[in-house]
Amino acid sequence: MDAMVAIGANLRHWRVLRGLTQELVAERADITRVTLSRLEQGKGGKLSALLRVAAVLDIEDRVVSAFDPLQTDLGRARSRTIVGAQGRKRVRS
Questions:
Q1: Range 3-58 classified under CATH 1.20.1270.360
Q2: Which pLDDT belongs to residue 79?
Q3: CA distances for 38 relative to 16, 21, 25, angstroms
């Protein structure tokens, strides 16, 4: 399954689990219902729109942590490379 389609399906599942309509989520995320529908269908959209929807669905932290390289074996093994490149220690919330 294409990653965009899988992410869109997961957004829809979270919305349905929360008992929210597309109209309500779109309004709270300050996007159009058409934009939300396109995201849910995996037809693309802006990252900012995806993050606003994730915030409305209270899953923004899951989205952010999904991209955290230190959540992987490789990232943990090479964490000194990451920290050294940034010149600072990683702060976890």
A1: no
A2: 81
A3: 16, 15, 13
